[in-house]
């Protein structure tokens, strides 16, 4: 494939990279007064990248999906689906950010630029079909995330969150690299298709250890048990808009690369990694549910909710089927909407002195003080719990259906039973907001960007979200098919 075609297929990443570099110069010359302009232009660049990627999504059929730069990068329906979701999630994060950061005196133009470069790294990750490309994209995304976690540099908790994330992230990267080196040592290549051919006759013990280490490194990125220990501390310590970002876009990218690396180079050896995924899925569901029960911090509770949801997503991967993969993509879309809506609601709740609401006592009686936000939170919490007829129920349903059709009935049954535990702490939100006595007051004004994200999230997770089912199922099926067309 010639360079012109390679440059075309990587147009979204190139466009975002150029935009980031230009905005970096604008930021350096303009200083603090151009921060809002830089934010708007970054959102516009991401929207343009989403439009371009959507064009590829509709134009590239599975056989026509192109490998760029000698097989280091692939533009297909799977990567396009994940990228569009990532770009839209980052745009939503930019929309809900300015008021919060400005109120805390930390609204600087570096913030949208870091999100922009993080999006470039995540784009490379989901399109990577070579271990080297995967690692480069992963590190580009991670470096942005480390800085974002400690963006409130005068806040001890934010600095601590950034340091913890950096140390544990470096450890996970080392584990991942060690696994990659083992795979390369036994396969003699870093290309996914060539790795699959190298192991077609069977997989050696050393290569199996490589798979285990790679899965362990990626489990850290998606905050799956037992590599979840950083999540509650980082989510609580980082600024809330950053936490919303961590819980959405990077999660999509990490799950996507986990799916690609499991279902492309190691598609012929499902039994070698399925038991690891099954353990991580069940452990994440149980630990996420039980860990959230005793939490008083709203952000820590949502961190454990994120761990819990990762467990349900991994059930789809354990099936190793096209239906399971499609279910994972559907779940990711609904999960991102629910997560962004939940964190946006938290951003909108502030005391008169500007202090953000952080505990359950802060939101006591919220229904009488801010009924619109309280009702939106009710929809989001019930949807996260998987209570019908809300759209979150459909996310869990498609995953469990895929597990049953793959004859993983025990896994589905345990997952369904464990999901009941999670309903407890979601219902606690509703109980405190609607039945406890109100304490204090909240700021009456919220920026239009936060209202747009919250209302859209509330509409999508409501029963009205089922009108999107036809398109969502079709897009998810197309994305999943691109991982299985060689099978």
UniProtKB/TrEMBL annotation:
Pfam families named in the record: Proton_antipo_M
Subunit-level organization: NDH-1 is composed of 14 different subunits. Subunits NuoA, H, J, K, L, M, N constitute the membrane sector of the complex.
Protein encoded by which gene: nuoN
Keyword Membrane attached: yes
GO terms for MF: NADH dehydrogenase (quinone) (non-electrogenic) activity; NADH dehydrogenase (ubiquinone) activity; quinone binding
Keywords: Cell membrane, Membrane, NAD, Oxidoreductase, Quinone, Translocase, Transmembrane, Transmembrane helix, Transport, Ubiquinone
Record's subcellular location: Cell membrane; Endomembrane system; Membrane
UniProt keyword annotation of Magnesium present: no
Functional note: NDH-1 shuttles electrons from NADH, via FMN and iron-sulfur (Fe-S) centers, to quinones in the respiratory chain. The immediate electron acceptor for the enzyme in this species is believed to be ubiquinone. Couples the redox reaction to proton translocation (for every two electrons transferred, four hydrogen ions are translocated across the cytoplasmic membrane), and thus conserves the redox energy in a proton gradient.
Domain NADH:quinone oxidoreductase/Mrp antiporter transmembrane: 128-422
GO (cellular component) term, any one: endomembrane system
Recorded topology in the membrane: Multi-pass membrane protein
Catalytic activity: a quinone + NADH + 5 H(+)(in) = a quinol + NAD(+) + 4 H(+)(out)
EC nos: 7.1.1.-
Organism (species): Parapontixanthobacter aurantiacus
Protein's name according to its UniProt entry: NADH-quinone oxidoreductase subunit N
An individual GO BP term: ATP synthesis coupled electron transport
Top-level taxon of origin: Bacteria
Family membership noted in the UniProt record: Belongs to the complex I subunit 2 family.
Residues spanning the membrane: 6-26, 38-58, 78-101, 113-138, 165-187, 199-224, 275-295, 301-320, 332-352, 372-394, 406-428, 448-468
């Amino acid at each position: 494939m010639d360079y012109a075609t390679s440059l075309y297929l990587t147009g979204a990443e190139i466009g975002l990279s150029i935009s980031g570099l230009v905005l970096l110069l604008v930021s350096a010359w303009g200083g603090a007064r151009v921060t809002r302009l830089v934010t708007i232009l970054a959102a516009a660049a991401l929207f343009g990248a989403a439009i371009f990627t959507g064009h590829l999504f509709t134009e590239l059929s599975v056989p026509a999906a192109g490998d760029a730069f000698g097989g280091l990068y692939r533009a297909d329906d799977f990567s396009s689906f994940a990228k569009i979701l990532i770009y839209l999630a980052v745009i939503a994060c930019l929309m809900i950010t300015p008021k919060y950061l400005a109120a805390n005196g930390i609204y600087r133009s570096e913030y949208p630029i870091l999100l922009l470069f993080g999006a470039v790294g995540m784009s490379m990750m989901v399109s990577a079909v070579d271990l080297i490309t995967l690692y480069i994209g992963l590190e580009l995304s991670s470096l942005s995330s480390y800085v974002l976690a400690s963006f409130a540099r005068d806040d001890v908790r934010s600095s601590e969150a950034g340091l913890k994330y950096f140390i544990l992230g470096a450890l996970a990267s080392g584990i991942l690299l060690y696994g990659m080196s083992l795979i390369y040592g036994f396969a003699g290549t870093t290309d996914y298709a060539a790795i699959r051919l190298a192991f077609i006759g069977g997989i050696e013990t050393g290569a199996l250890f490589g798979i285990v280490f790679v899965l362990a490194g990626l489990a850290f990125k998606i905050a799956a048990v037992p590599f979840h220990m950083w999540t509650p501390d980082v989510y609580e310590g980082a600024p809330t808009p950053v936490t919303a970002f961590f819980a959405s876009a990077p999660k999509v990218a990490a799950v996507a690369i986990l799916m690609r690396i499991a279902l492309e180079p190691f598609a012929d050896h499902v039994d070698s990694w399925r038991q690891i995924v099954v353990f991580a899925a069940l452990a994440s569901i149980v630990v996420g549910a039980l860990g959230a029960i005793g939490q008083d911090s709203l952000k820590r509770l949502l961190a454990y909710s994120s761990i819990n949801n990762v467990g349900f997503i991994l059930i789809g991967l354990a099936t190793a089927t096209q239906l399971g993969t499609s279910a994972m993509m559907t779940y990711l879309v609904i999960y991102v909407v629910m997560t962004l809506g939940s964190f946006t609601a938290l951003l909108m709740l502030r005391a008169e002195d500007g202090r953000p609401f952080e505990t359950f006592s802060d939101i006591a009686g919220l229904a009488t003080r801010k009924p619109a936000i309280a009702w939106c939170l009710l929809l989001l919490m019930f949807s996260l719990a998987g209570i019908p007829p809300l759209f979150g129920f459909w996310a869990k349903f498609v995953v469990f259906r895929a597990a049953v059709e793959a004859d993983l009935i025990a896994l589905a049954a345990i997952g369904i039973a464990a999901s009941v535990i999670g309903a407890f702490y979601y219902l606690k939100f509703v109980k405190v907001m609607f039945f406890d006595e109100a304490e204090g007051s909240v700021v009456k004004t919220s920026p239009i960007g936060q209202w747009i994200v919250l209302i859209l999230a509330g509409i999508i997770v409501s029963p009205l979200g089922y009108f999107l089912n036809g398109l969502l199922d079709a897009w998810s099926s197309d994305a999943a098919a691109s991982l299985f067309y060689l099978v």
